[in-house]
Every structure is written in C-alpha cells, then in structure tokens.
Amino acid sequence: MTPEIAIMGHPNEGKSSVLSTLAEDDSVRVSPTPGETTRCRTFPVVIDGREVLRFTDTPGFQNPGRVLTMLNRLSGDSGDIIRQFREQARTIPELSDDRELLLPVERGAGIIYVVDGSRPVRNVDREEMEILRLTGRPRMAIINCKDEDDAFLQSWKDEFRKTFNANRVFNAHRATYAERILLLTALQSIDQDWQPVIGQVIAAFQRDWTARNRATADHIITMLGDCLRHRLTVEAGEETADRGREEELVRQFNRSLAEMERRTHDKIRGLFKHHIFDYRLPPRSILHEDLFNERTWQVLGLSKKQLAIIGGLSGAAVGAGLDAAHAGLSMGVYAALGGAIGALGAIIGGETVSANASFMGIKLGGQQLQIGPVNSINLLLVLLNRALLFYSHTINWAHGRRDYDKAGAPAGPAPDQMGFTRNWSPARIRICNAFFKALQQEGGGDALQAESDLRHLLEEVLLEISQQE
Ligand SMILES: Nc1nc2c(ncn2[C@@H]2O[C@H](COP(=O)(O)OP(=O)(O)OP(=O)(O)O)[C@@H](O)[C@H]2O)c(=O)[nH]1
Ligand SMILES: [Mg+2]
C-alpha cells in the first residue's frame, strides 16, 4: 500500500507551503489568510508512472482543547478513538475542520506536524501535540521558521521530544533538493515499517533527479549547438549600403539566439516542475542583462587566464572577435547592439561579401548578406553560464515559496555576478573548447567524443550545484 503522510498543525503555520515544497507541487494553495485549507487534499508523488508516496494537506486545528477533552473521554485503542471522535463530531458544525483534519489519520496516515518556530510555544500547541500523541501514529515535527528569528527553536525542540519520534528544521521557502532528501531520510526513522518503502522513495527521488539533470545537460548541449551554428542569410537587394538595415539584421540575429536560449530555459524549468508560478530571479541577477551585452560577456565569458589556456591550444582560430569582445572594447554601434559584431563573424554588404573568403560559398544571386555563425568560444561560455545560473536559481526556488516581492536579498552582494566557469580547471575549459572546435568544423574530427565529454562534464557540474546548500 502506498504510504500516506498527513501534514498537520495550527492554521497558517505553513503546512501547505511545506507540502508544496516536499511534493514539488506549485499548485498547492498557500495564502496569508489563516484557514485557507478547509478540506483534506492528497498529493501523490509519482515517479516513473508509479505512485510511491502521498502527502495529504489538512486544515489547521480549530478547537484543539475541545477535541482533546472528547478524546480523553473515549476508550479503545488509539486507532479506534479517532474513528469514534469523528463519528461523534459529525453533528457538531464548529468541529468540522477538526473532524476533517483527522480523516487521513483514521485511514492510517503518518503525521508531519508543522509549526512556525519563530514564535513561542503556547498551550494550544501542547493540546495539538497531545492529540497527535493519542493517535498513536508515527509522527515527526517540522519547524518551519517563517521569520529569520530562531530564538524559540530550542524550546520547540524540547517540547517535541515529549511527543514526537523525530523533529527537523525545514524551511518551506528555502529548502533545497538536498534538504528534501534529508527530511525523507529522517522520516524513515520514525517508523520501522516505513524504512524499506521510504528507502525506495528516496532512491526513486535520486534516480529521478539524475534523469532530470541528464535531460538538462541534453537541452544545454542542443542549445549550444543550435546557437553556435546559427546563421542568418538574406537577399540584400539594392539597399545594402543602408547601415540601418545592417543593424536590424544583427538585431534579428541576436533575437533568434535569445529566443533559442529562452526556450531552453523554459524546458529546464519544466523539468523541475515549476509550472504555474512565474518565480522570480534574484533582483540583481546577471540573468536580467541581455545575452548580448558587454557586461554579460565580460562577467560570464572566459577570464584572461583561461583565454591564455585556450589561446595556446588553438592559436589564431580563437579569433579577433573574441579578444575584442572579451576586453569589452567599444565597437561602435555594433557593440551597443550586440556586444560583439566581431564575434558574430558578420559579413555585411554585397560588395564586401564577394571579397570575403568566409562566405561559405553560398550563392543566392545579387547581393547577399550573412550573419553568423558566431566564431567566439565566449558565446558558448556565456550561454553555458547563463543556463547553469538559471538551473541553480530554479532548483533552489522552493515550490512552496510564493512571496516574489521579497525574493532575493535587497542589499548585499548580488548573488550571481560570476559565471560558474570562472573557477573551472583548465581540463574543463579544454572540454568546452573541444566542443566549440567540433561545432566550428561542422561535426568534423572527434565531434561525438567532444559532445560526450561535455555531457559528462555538465552532469557532474549539475550534481555539484544540486548538492550545494
Ligand atoms: N517567510 C516565510 N513565509 C512562509 C513560510 N512558510 C509559509 N509562509 C507564509 O505563511 C502563510 C501561510 O502559509 P500556508 O502554507 O498557507 O499555511 P497553512 O498552515 O497551510 O495555513 P492554513 O491552510 O490556512 O491552515 C503564507 O502566506 C505563506 O507564504 C516560510 O518558510 N517563510
Ligand atoms: Mg493550508
């Protein structure tokens, strides 16, 4: 039978938020108004088409004192007194929430009790805990500090020791993948019968996460290939001398790349089950900058030292465009437009085309104009870093979190002002470079090897990011 865990507690303490984060379900109703949840709702955790675990969201206790008095008058085993209570409360309207919230317990669910640890323990809390003790079900307490304040943490823990098999601090708004796994691991210990099945759930969670990382790596590699091979070739007609038109084409080219990037980010976001809410990136994230702007390229491209490593490898092929883009040199209107026209390898204007050997032999008749493919490894690094930053923000945005306005710290250093690749070893940079070279040679050389090396590198990096606190 699929194990069921009921999330219980006082109104407005963050039960639904904890559930939303644990089950990775952003459709759970969360609201600042106490009493938001009035009916039990079950959220299955489905992995590989199989329901491995279900969480049930419950309303908050309304009259714990009265419920406790009634329970104390009943006799029988713990399972039966809950059934009897629910029977007796059927005709008492003010007990409807309390009756409803004990439904999963009557079915045999285990219990996660959620409290807001940023306030002191009160008598009603003790009554609720006593009710849960009387149910005799395996139970664990979760301290979800809604404020940063942890002054009351210890008194909560002391209290919990009396009534719960385990307790954990778990922040519904900030819990990461690693913390979700830790919480499940702790859940294993509260009931011996659960150990094997929760163990399977944890293994399934981990396999699922690995599969998502693999899919993320695939999406990133596809995007890099598409963007770095992209070219725009147009019939230029008579008016090619018109600079405005050239600029428009560069913009169009940049827009296509930005669009490919956006679609890739959307796919990553979908893999991590952020469907409904448009969660925010931290306010000062470098991701708010355009893909093609000087700052993005400076911050997320290769460092000078890394440049030297690659330069030594591939010599002149790195291209003047790279140096120019890297140094952030102003390149007039193109720099303003797109960061690096040199890096775009643009060939502009009918007359110049015929003189340019790198026109790839495409003959469209009349005057032609081709922009791309980009011949700078920095585009690869910039796209890669942005995808990794996006991934990192996505996996760390807990599903229970809905307070966009408070997203990110208002002060202090911006969270992601540097790309991941800045700290990478020369070996990793060489893997990127080999993939870049293979793209430039249109699949020549060891293209398959280069792609497989990059895939392994990305899977390793994604796992590193998931395990960060
Ligand atoms: N800052 C912060 N706010 C939180 C946290 N957890 C919950 N909240 C907020 O607290 C309010 C109540 O959260 P819910 O998850 O709806 O609480 P609940 O216990 O399900 O409430 P009821 O269904 O009304 O009993 C919401 O506005 C949440 O966004 C947290 O960890 N940090
Ligand atoms: Mg709720």
TrEMBL record:
Domain G as annotated: residue spans: 4-144
Keywords in alphabetical order: Cell cycle, Cell division
Gene3D superfamilies recorded: P-loop containing nucleotide triphosphate hydrolases
UniProt xrefs under InterPro entries: DUF3482 (IPR021871), GTP-bd (IPR006073), P-loop_NTPase (IPR027417)
Gene Ontology biological-process annotations: cell division; tRNA methylation; tRNA wobble uridine modification
Entry-linked Pfam families: DUF3482, MMR_HSR1
GO molecular function: GTP binding
Record's GO cellular component terms: cytosol
Protein name as annotated: GTP-binding protein EngB required for normal cell division
SUPFAM superfamilies the UniProt entry points to: P-loop containing nucleoside triphosphate hydrolases (SSF52540)
